[in-house]
From TrEMBL:
HTH tetR-type domain residues: 20-80
Alphabetized GO MF terms: DNA-binding transcription factor activity; transcription cis-regulatory region binding
Residues of the DNA-binding region: 43-62
Gene Ontology biological process terms from the UniProt entry: negative regulation of DNA-templated transcription
Matches recorded under InterPro entries: Homeodomain-like_sf, HTH-type_TetR-like_transc_reg, HTH_TetR, Tet_transcr_reg_TetR-rel_C_sf
Protein name: TetR/AcrR family transcriptional regulator
Keyword entries, A-Z: DNA-binding, Transcription, Transcription regulation
PROSITE patterns: HTH_TETR_2
Length: 217
């Protein structure tokens, strides 16, 4: 039984949900439908039925399917960005920080709701509003990583950003492969392997204002 079904079963018939709770319920139902069917195959009727509401109730909160998809995309892009920022701030040990950041991507992609598919595998990337959001969150994550690299190494903004884009891109591509291949390697082991690969490269850059490599931090 999904979280939506559990909520519906626990709520007495005829009970009106507060607006925010109803919106969250509708977003949860929409996520299940969009992840399972893709944007183009999903219908507002399917989402309303999944949420256990009438279609007019759904339209009270979202004027159309695209607006509903964008609201869901905004929610999950923010979740990814916050996960990366939290990982970067979790320690001052650079190797552990690389591991934490990569694990943030794995955790995001492993989430059972499959929301990462809306961000990284959307069938609506030809829609400018969707493409802009996906590109923006990738850029924001890279900027967060770049700030740490620049602060530790003294590399230029452009050089730090290039490395950050590489680290973020590798993390999400490998995590998606790991999930698609059946997660046969435990997540901790997969993160450790990827961290070792990335660390051998990033650790070679000297600390800002020092001759020691970054791994001596």
């Amino acid at each position: 039984m999904t979280a939506i079904e559990q909520t519906q079963a626990a709520r007495p018939r005829g009970t009106r949900l507060p607006r925010r709770a109803r919106r969250n319920q509708l977003l949860g139902a929409a996520q299940e439908v969009f992840v399972a069917q893709g944007y183009h195959s999903a219908a507002m009727d399917d989402i309303a039925e999944r949420a256990g509401v009438s279609k007019p109730v759904l339209y009270q909160h979202f004027p159309g399917k695209l607006e509903l998809y964008l609201a869901l995309l905004d929610q999950h892009c923010e979740a990814l960005l916050q996960g990366v920022r939290t990982a970067l701030a979790s320690t001052t040990d650079n190797k552990l920080r690389v591991a934490a950041t990569m694990d943030a991507y794995f955790a995001y992609i492993e989430d059972e709701g499959g929301a990462f598919r809306l961000v990284f595998e959307s069938d609506l990337t030809n829609e400018p509003a969707v493409r802009e959001r996906v590109e923006r969150v990738s850029l924001q994550c890279a900027e967060a990583i770049s700030d740490v690299i620049a602060g530790d190494t003294g590399l230029s903004k452009e050089e730090s950003m290039l490395l950050a884009v590489g680290l973020g891109g590798v993390s999400q591509v490998v995590a998606r492969y790991w999930l698609a291949s059946g997660s046969r390697i435990p997540r901790d082991t997969a993160v450790q392997l990827l961290t070792s690969l990335a660390w051998r490269g990033i650790a070679g850059f000297p600390l800002h204002g020092a001759d020691l490599p970054i791994e001596q931090h």
